[in-house]
Amino acid sequence: MIRDKPLENDKSQWPVFSFAGGPTQLPRTVLKQIKEDFLSYKGIGLSILEVHDQSKEFAQILTEAEQDLRDLYNLPEDFRIYFSQGGATLIFESLVYNLLGDKNVVSYANTGHWSEKAIKEAGYLTNVHETCKAQVDERGLSYIPDFDQWSYNQDAAFLHYCDNETAEGLEFQFTPKFDNQLLITDVSSNFLTRRMDWNKLDGLYSHGQKNVGISGSSILILRQNLFTQKQMSITPSFCDFKELKRGLNVETQPVMPIYVNGLMFRYIKETGGIDFWDEHSQRRSNKLYKSIDNSHGFFKNPIVPDQRSRISVVFDLQKQELTQKFFDEAKQENIIEIKGHRSRGGCRVNLYVPVADIGIDALVDFMDDFANKYN
């Protein structure tokens, strides 16, 4: 349980428990602050929805959010933080526009649905070298190959990987780095739930609606030397990293989403920081995996145990005809959004930071009861 945050452990504050892929629920502590600021932000007479993105109030929101994020990640000085609109999908192409330089190929690890989406977008602009692909072992379990089995293309402008595949429930257990090749990672689903190796990484990005807020914002953390890269001549202003560096946002900043991001950064700090959330995420997911593994095959997880995601728990019912009944009976217990990603079906439980511990306990109890009832 989250200590010193009684609202998070009060069942009356959670009419339903949602395990959606995003947007996620918010901590009740954060919702309470939003409610206070909704009609008049800090007593200025304007709702937080009405605060101008060039105002001193928003400048303060941005400054505090950046500092809290820098503190959480213990970010080196040569990295900078940027907020933008567009979601992670827009960043897929932005990376190629800004980092391809004089080269004509980029490397991508293909470990699941979101890697494939990133590869597709990059392929519109240049050649893509697939440096590895998720495999299936003799037990039918998916896994990421050991790094020494990856294919290295020394001509690639950068290597990209998705740190946690939400659709498949597969999470990296190492940081893949080829020599001095630039390394970029998509951490949209496990953002701020574990430490990152800043000696190897050159950049990461995440959208805001999973671990740190509502939809509408994206966060980029980029090493400053990336801004010396030669851009593609067709780079749109909306995708231009140099515009970000100059502070020349070509669109109105998403004030409300960034405000909520800032509240979530502060919440994560107050509840113990990244080290706590790394361990706590493992504890929470272990509850679900224990229920799955102890179900005598009634529930099945398709990932090798040491690469199971701490954040995205994916499973199937052995008796597939019971899957819809599983969803229907869960809803009767006020447990919702546990359908698997549309790319694979089955069941999926997303354990993002704001998800209530008491909701996870309720889900585990329901799964155990359901398995006993129908097994």
Keywords:
375 residues; alpha/beta; 17% strand
Order of strands across the biggest sheet?
A: 2-12-11-10-7-3-4
Structural class: alpha/beta
| Percent strand | 15-25%
Q: Which sheet architecture does the biggest sheet show?
A: 7 strands, mixed
Q: Total number of helical segments?
A: 9
Helix and strand pattern: EHHEHEHEEEEEEEEEHHHEEHEEH
The end-to-end distance, rounded to whole angstroms, is: 31 Å
The pLDDT mean sits at 93
Low-confidence stretches: none
* Cα radius of gyration in angstroms: 21 Å
Shape category: globular
Helical residue percent band: 25-40%
Count of β-strands: 16
Description:
Helices cover 33% and strands 17% of the residues. It is built from nine helices and 16 strands. The chain has helices at 28-39, 56-73, 87-99, 113-123, 241-245, 255-270, 273-293, 323-332, 357-374, and strands spanning 17-18, 79-84, 105-110, 127-133, 135-136, 142-143, 158-162, 164-165, 170-171, 182-186, 203-207, 218-223, 299-300, 312-317, 335-336, 347-350. The strands form five sheets. A seven-stranded mixed beta sheet has the order 2-12-11-10-7-3-4, with helices on both faces. Strands 13-14-16 form a three-stranded antiparallel beta sheet, covered by helices on one side. α1 (28-39) crosses α6 (255-270), α3 crosses α4 (113-123) and α7 (273-293) packs parallel to α9 (357-374).
Architecture blueprint of SSEs:
Blueprint: E1 17-18, H1 28-39, H2 56-73, E2 79-84, H3 87-99, E3 105-110, H4 113-123, E4 127-133, E5 135-136, E6 142-143, E7 158-162, E8 164-165, E9 170-171, E10 182-186, E11 203-207, E12 218-223, H5 241-245, H6 255-270, H7 273-293, E13 299-300, E14 312-317, H8 323-332, E15 335-336, E16 347-350, H9 357-374
Parallel strand pairs: 1-15, 3-4, 3-7, 7-10, 10-11
Antiparallel strand pairs: 2-12, 5-6, 8-9, 11-12, 13-14, 14-16
Helix pairs in contact: 1-6, 2-6, 3-4, 7-9
